[in-house]
UniProtKB/TrEMBL annotation:
<keyword id="KW-0812">Transmembrane</keyword>
<feature type="transmembrane region" description="Helical">
    <location>
        <begin position="201"/>
        <end position="224"/>
    </location>
</feature>
<protein>
    <submittedName>
        <fullName>ABC transporter permease</fullName>
    </submittedName>
</protein>
<feature type="transmembrane region" description="Helical">
    <location>
        <begin position="93"/>
        <end position="110"/>
    </location>
</feature>
<feature type="transmembrane region" description="Helical">
    <location>
        <begin position="245"/>
        <end position="264"/>
    </location>
</feature>
<dbReference type="GO" id="GO:0005886">
    <property type="term" value="C:plasma membrane"/>
</dbReference>
<keyword id="KW-1133">Transmembrane helix</keyword>
<keyword id="KW-1003">Cell membrane</keyword>
<feature type="transmembrane region" description="Helical">
    <location>
        <begin position="299"/>
        <end position="320"/>
    </location>
</feature>
<keyword id="KW-0472">Membrane</keyword>
<feature type="transmembrane region" description="Helical">
    <location>
        <begin position="116"/>
        <end position="135"/>
    </location>
</feature>
<feature type="transmembrane region" description="Helical">
    <location>
        <begin position="326"/>
        <end position="345"/>
    </location>
</feature>
<feature type="transmembrane region" description="Helical">
    <location>
        <begin position="12"/>
        <end position="38"/>
    </location>
</feature>
<dbReference type="InterPro" id="IPR001851">
    <property type="entry name" value="ABC_transp_permease"/>
</dbReference>
<feature type="transmembrane region" description="Helical">
    <location>
        <begin position="147"/>
        <end position="166"/>
    </location>
</feature>
<dbReference type="GO" id="GO:0022857">
    <property type="term" value="F:transmembrane transporter activity"/>
</dbReference>
<feature type="transmembrane region" description="Helical">
    <location>
        <begin position="276"/>
        <end position="292"/>
    </location>
</feature>
Length: 358
């Protein structure tokens, strides 16, 4: 006996709206069971993971800070995923954007450079990420190389370049031999939105990216082109849409936004270049993109939820002695629950027994 998924003739709008809610509840129940099996109280874990961060002003700011790179990268990835192209290397594009922008910050360090420095740094970050994202796109369009493999392998090259620079030519000579650059000048850092706050203007960039992407995907020919290329590639070719141009465009956009995320994190959150500029934002953003159903508003909400799990996970590690890896496991469970809920809303389960159907 086996079961198959067959498309439903009509999809209930109510169930489609309730699907992510039920998926979140299911994910929390599964996580609670795991925590109970580990000998901890699920209610105490829920309080540490969810209630305390949402009631603490400092934690709320940290949620926005961590959601910023996740939202920017995931928005960029949504362009690729909608066109049925798989950019798995956003982590590398994030790093290269941070490296190229930091080059300008370090070149102007200690000088009387004016207001042009910060825009130039951010623009360099976008260009660096876009160029690095175009490498797997070029290899795919020119030689037919699988973009999943190339984009993923380029991540490790980018991380090794970063590690070499901060341990070698860009290392702070007064940094007690730590692998880090000098601290950027105030003119080369993103200021906080509110005085004495933690949330910097990178979050504004994320909001702008969400709004612009919502317009592009929903109101422009380019957005229609992406949807058609992903849903019906043959129809896209008949309509005259060039698949190679689409591939280059979406990888460039995706890499550019990842590079902007990297530069925003370095200039706004960290203030210097170091090997640990990312706890895996580029990979986590893949989860965020699908949790948000590749919808810009949904991605913003998903970024906030996932960043909440990061903050809650750090607190649970201290207060409940739970491993931090449990947070990543919960994020994976959450993604599986959301995708499963969407699949069950769009399809019905048909059990097949000995060639017959039930």
């Amino acid at each position: 006996m086996r079961f198959e998924l067959t498309p439903r003739a009509s999809i209930s709008a109510l169930w489609r709206a309730l699907a992510p809610v039920l998926a979140f509840i299911t994910a929390f129940l599964i996580a609670g069971l795991v925590i109970w099996l580990m000998g901890r109280s699920p209610l105490a874990a829920f309080q540490v993971y969810v209630t305390q961060p949402l009631s603490d002003p400092w934690a709320l700011q940290e949620i926005l800070v961590k959601a910023t790179p996740l939202a920017l990268i995931a928005i960029g990835l949504s362009y690729c995923f909608r066109a049925n192209l798989w950019n798995i290397g956003a982590e590398g594009q994030y790093v290269v954007g941070a490296v190229l922008g930091s080059w300008i910050a370090l070149r102007t360090h200690g000088t009387d450079a004016g207001l042009w420095v910060l825009p130039a740094i951010l623009l360099a970050g976008i260009i660096g990420g876009a160029l690095y994202g175009l490498i797997p796109a070029f290899l795919k369009t020119r030689f037919g190389v699988n973009e999943i493999l190339t984009s993923l392998m380029l991540v490790y090259i980018a991380q090794l370049i970063l590690d070499y620079l901060v341990r070698g030519p860009w290392r702070d000579p007064k940094g007690f031999n730590f692998p880090q650059s000098v601290t950027f000048d105030p003119a080369a850092t993103l200021p906080p939105i509110f005085e004495a706050g933690r949330v910097h203007y990178g979050f504004v960039f994320a909001l702008i990216a969400v709004l612009v992407t919502a317009v592009i995907l929903g109101r422009t020919l380019f957005g229609y082109r992406l949807r058609l290329s992903g849903d019906a590639p043959r129809a896209a070719r008949f309509a005259g849409f060039n698949s190679k141009t689409t591939t280059l465009a979406v990888f460039g956009i995706s890499g550019g936004l990842a590079g902007l995320a990297g530069m925003s994190e370095v200039t706004g959150q960290i203030g210097q270049l170091q090997p640990s500029i990312s706890p895996g934002y580029g990979f986590t953003a893949i989860t965020v993109a699908f949790l948000g159903r590749l919808n810009p508003i949904g991605i913003l909400v998903a970024a906030l939820v996932v960043s909440l799990t990061f903050i809650g996970g750090e607190s649970a590690q201290i207060m409940l002695k739970l491993p931090l890896d449990l947070t990543q496991a919960f994020q994976g469970i959450l993604l599986l629950c959301v995708l499963s809920a969407d699949a069950l809303v769009s399809n019905r389960i048909r059990f097949v027994v000995r060639g017959g159907a039930k």
